[in-house]
Design brief:
The protein is an alpha/beta fold. It is built from 11 helices and 10 strands. The longest helix has 20 residues. Bound molecules: zinc ion. The site of zinc ion has 7 residues, from loops.
Length: 308
């Protein structure tokens, strides 16, 4: 099946400064691999539109948007926190990154595409309604989820987040929204050093010890995510696709393999096939070791395409 690959050149222009792990080479590494393996030929490449203020205000406060615009420098860098750095092109990249997920939702709900992969930066899942953090400015996936709910009238969607860092922003934004089931695995204790909320009807947080490997990760998914996801019967599945739990990625201690990212992608596709007509909107989050990032993104997208 054809899936949409949504990105934008502006995402390469978000400059975080010398030596920053969240840099444009991440997108280039993925695109280079997709080109080399022929995958890019069978995806539908779509340029991300800019998100609108109305779409952002569904999940962010007006003060947050104003603060970001006011902080954005015309040259050089501005530091929002010790890790989160913006430059003159960062806000236009951020508008494309969030706009990509909105476009993905429109395509997938409209049945033009069964699934979409948004290859974008800056990432989003740490951005809360009122603050940027952890390399994230706008919460891209949350903007897309809110669009699916408010614009398209979906009543039940799931967000699954296998990035090694807890998706505190997504959790905060939808904590009181029973239409959104949030499932997350993450190294703990670890960045973002916030206390994950207690599990509830719309939330499955599964902390992983720093020593966790395949067995612990797969048990978390099989025993804690999948039963709740299958009971919930989401109409669409959103994926915060972070690949920084890979054993080659020194951003964390959790040690997953290529096979684990392939496997979890298959489990997610299985959930979507049961209740969501296979509809998946996947959004790049973390992943900083370029070779494993590109390999695992390819495996993930192949699963979305039904290629195994
Ligand atoms: Zn991460």
């Amino acid at each position: 099946m054809t899936i949409a690959y949504i990105s934008h050149r502006e995402c390469l222009r978000h400059d975080t400064g010398e030596g920053h792990p969240e840099n444009a080479r991440r997108i280039s590494a993925i695109e280079d691999r997709f080109l080399a393996t022929g995958l890019l030929d069978v995806l539908r490449y779509i340029d991300a539109p800019e998100v609108t203020e109305h779409q952002l205000l569904r999940v962010h406060t007006a003060e947050h948007l104003e603060t970001l615009d006011a902080m954005a420098p015309t040259s050089g860098y501005a530091r929002l926190d010790p890790d989160t750095i913006i430059s003159s092109d960062s806000m236009s990249a951020a508008r494309r990154a969030a706009g990509a997920v909105v476009a993905a939702v429109d395509l997938v709900v409209g049945a033009d595409m069964e699934s979409a992969f948004c290859c974008v930066r800056p990432p989003g899942h740490h951005a809360e309604s009122h603050r940027a953090m952890g390399f994230c400015l706008y919460n891209n996936i949350a903007v897309g989820v809110a669009h699916a709910l408010e614009e398209h009238g979906l009543e039940k969607v799931a967000v699954v987040d296998f990035d090694v860092h807890q998706g505190n922003g997504t959790e905060e934004i939808f904590q009181n929204d029973d239409r959104v089931l949030f499932c997350s695995t993450f190294q703990h204790p670890f960045f973002p050093f916030t206390t994950p909320l207690e599990n509830a009807a719309n939330r499955v947080n599964v902390p992983l010890d720093a020593t966790a490997k395949s067995a612990e990760f797969r048990a978390a998914i099989s025993e804690q995510w999948l039963p709740v996801l299958n009971d919930f019967q989401p109409q669409m599945v959103f994926v915060s696709a972070g690949f920084d739990a890979h054993q080659d990625d020194d951003m964390s201690y959790v040690s997953l393999t290529d096979a684990d990212f392939h496997w979890v992608s298959e489990q997610i596709a299985g959930v979507a096939a049961k209740s969501a007509s296979g509809r998946i909107v996947s959004v790049l989050e973390g992943g900083y070791e370029l070779d494993s990032l590109a390999r695992c993104a390819e495996l993930h997208v192949r699963v979305l395409m039904g290629l195994h």
